[in-house]
Specification:
Shape: elongated
Strand content: 15-25%
Helix content: 40-55%
CATH topology of one domain: H-NOX domain
Strand order of the largest sheet: 1-2-4-3-5
Number of helices: 9
Length: 358
């Protein structure tokens, strides 16, 4: 009797974190554009609002404490938070203090979230939705009803960056006053000597790459549940899957190069998904399962760990990435889902084999 081959679990190569960051970064931008195209401006803005409010509620207050900003005056703390957290994520951002009650932040082009030429397809409503969801809610989360945000510039309006300042007023603000637009105001120039230090600037390269990876992954962790909740499991899942397929195809060459995978067979795609899984800190391995056939087993789904409820359609949207990648890897192969994850168990199984008509 022939021995059954042991599952093949490959070590994550140095480029695995960069590959994961690349594909999720592009997926985030693609989901926003897909919502604009297929659902319209208002729905796209609502999706962005929900995504950023979800992130705000999960990360803002813990992040302030982790960054050592929770004892600062609120306006200064908020501006420094956006500077430090975004700079660590690879975003080009500036911080300009004016007083204990007024501090500026500027997101300088190229805008990280609107990858490349994608910014040409992003309506102003989408940019405003992000500000409503996060910047305008900082005072609420801090229990300070006098704190608001004034937006003075928007990249999507053709201005040199997204710019504005946190201001603590002398009175409590009504809800509609927490975000104000003042395009005639001009922010001060950035002085690096006045900016807080980005802790981690001297970290080893591998740790910095992991921070960048986490930054991109966190956006997808926040957006996919909101996508299927807002548009429904069927419509949201289909929109996400279509977008995922496009992004998987568009980023395959770059990510395969970063992962160090080559060849066009089923086994090589098993290596590709395995190395991507390791780049996400998941337990994943592949093994032969017949002629031109491999079985890929992923025992964890770190991306969505703890997300409740795990709505129908969410997995299909995410899985579209790997369907798209396989279409470029070898269009004669198909990716079949053998096991889907659930709340009790994040295990996933795929089979890659030649199409019946291939």
């Amino acid at each position: 009797m022939n021995a059954v081959p042991a599952p093949r679990s490959l070590p994550a190569p140095p480029g695995s974190y960069a590959a994961v960051e690349t594909i999720y970064h592009a997926f985030l931008t693609g989901l926003i554009l897909s919502a604009v195209l297929h659902r319209g401006r208002a729905d796209a803005a609502e999706l962005v609002f929900r995504t950023f409010r979800r992130q705000h509620l999960e990360k803002f207050l813990p992040g302030l404490k982790k960054l050592g900003l929770d004892k600062l005056p609120h306006a200064v703390a908020c501006a420094q938070y956006h500077y430090l957290a975004n700079a660590l994520g690879g975003v080009k951002v500036e911080y300009m203090p004016e007083s204990d009650r007024k501090a500026w932040v500027r997101y300088v082009p190229p805008r990280w979230i609107y990858l490349g030429t994608a910014i040409c397809g992003v309506p102003t409503e989408v940019s405003r939705a992000m500000l409503r969801a996060w910047h305008a809610h900082n005072g609420v989360s801090l229990g300070n009803p006098r704190l608001g945000f004034v937006c003075t510039k928007q990249t999507t309006d053709g201005q040199p960056g997204l710019e504005g300042y946190y201001h603590e007023y002398d009175r409590d603000l009504a809800e509609h006053e927490r975000l104000r637009f003042a395009p005639d105001e001009e922010g001060p120039d950035f002085d690096p000597d006045l900016a807080p230090r980005v802790e981690g600037a001297e970290w080893p390269e591998a740790r910095l790459r992991k921070v960048l990876r986490n930054y991109a992954m966190d956006y997808i962790r926040s957006m996919l549940p909101e996508l299927v909740d807002l548009f429904g499991a069927e419509c949201g899942g289909a929109l996400g899957r279509h977008c995922g397929r496009l992004i998987g195809m568009q980023t395959y060459d770059e990510t395969a190069c970063l992962l160090g995978t080559a060849g066009h067979g089923a086994a090589e795609f098993g290596e590709y998904l395995t190395r991507l899984g390791h780049g996400q800190d998941d337990e994943v391995a592949w093994e032969p399962a017949g002629p031109e056939t491999v079985l890929i087993r992923q025992r964890t789904w770190r991306l969505m760990a703890g997300v409740e409820p795990l709505l129908p359609g969410l997995f299909d949207a995410w899985n579209g990435l790997w369907e798209g990648a396989l279409a470029v890897h070898n269009r004669h192969l198909q990716l079949s889902v053998i096991r889907r994850p659930d709340l009790a168990n994040g295990a996933i199984e795929w089979m890659v084999k030649r199409r019946a008509d291939g």
